[in-house]
Amino acid sequence: MSLDSVKIKGRVLYLTEDSTLLDAQLGGKNLPYDADRALIGNISTDELTPGWVCYYYDETLARYCLVGLRGGTVKRDQIKDGGFGVIVSGISKGCGSSRETAPYSELKAGVQLVIAKSIEKIYRQNAQNIGLLTSTDFGLIVRIEKGEAIPVSEFTKGLDPISASIVEHGGLFAYNRARLKGETNPPAITTAARPMTLSEKILAAHVIRDARTGVTGVPAVKPGDAFFARTDVRFSHEYVTPMAESLFVAEMGKDATVTDPASVWAFRDHLTFLDLVMPKAHRDMGLKEQAEKLATVQEDFTKRQGVKLYGEVHRDGKLVGSEAICHNKVIEEIALPGQLVAGTDSHTCMAGALGCFAFGVGSPTWRTPGTRRTSA
Prior knowledge:
Layout: E1 5-6, E2 11-14, H1 19-26, H2 45-48, E3 84-89, H3 101-108, E4 113-116, H4 121-130, E5 133-135, H5 139-145, E6 150-151, H6 161-169, H7 172-180, H8 198-206, E7 208-210, E8 215-216, E9 226-230, E10 233-237, H9 241-252, E11 264-267, H10 274-277, H11 280-284, H12 287-305, E12 308-310, E13 312-315, E14 318-322, H13 326-334, E15 340-343, E16 357-360, H14 363-367, E17 370-374
Parallel strand pairs: 2-3, 3-4, 4-5, 10-11, 10-15, 11-12, 15-16
Antiparallel strand pairs: 1-6, 7-8, 9-17, 13-14
Helix pairs in contact: 3-4, 6-7
């Protein structure tokens, strides 16, 4: 069921350039809205959740929200325990890598809305997928502080129809549940036959016309068309599989099963030799044991879901490597020309060398049977 309006609860946190004011807010002081207040810009996803935080994959991420912010002002649990419902910052919120842990840490820390002068595309879409609202309208702050219920339409301005509907439903999983039940449908692709690039031809062949029957294919697509597409190959490595599992179970239930597991592959390759390179400071924080859980969770998931796992290789009782590196294995043995490939790895696009349309995606998108995509 889609939402018409939302009431934002909690305090407003202004990520100010003045560290004294920032520290005061974290200590419990509320600041009045000031349009001229200098705000920190270019807050990267690495500042929201530094690389070492990504060994966590569930609601624990809330404890580490913004601990990497420049200046070291924000400490563990301060955002989660601060009662903040809104976080406000300057330009380019969410720049850097596409890690989904960043907006997820904010959401699970109790934040409902992120306001910034500009918001990076991937961060914004990751936020939409998990139900974290975003806006560049600073006028909302005064309305929120007055206790006004904000129409959801304020958060869908300028979005394509699918993205807008995802926001209205509170996230990608909720939207897909409604879509697969036939309660909502993206607009039909009506683009007439036209000359297309190879990528456009592949996408056109994979457009999902009816989520309930699984019918795919349209005559043509063009730049700007928004649709879901049926993927031929889906894969994930151990850095991301556990978070995907956590989101999947939280949204779909512990007994939910993966659609078409034969089209899904999992890889243990990113952290295989972590034991050799992890610094002592991280070991002392218990991160070695936490990182090892990523492999355990991934293996458990693949066994339960019937997914092929390329794991580690041991010889004479010693770890000597991985069975395969995800993006390499996909182009060597799995993907075929003309297929649509989605993986949780930035090198997924390597499959383009085979004549595939291949791209990196995040946890919720990878786990859904149809991948949201706008043709380029």
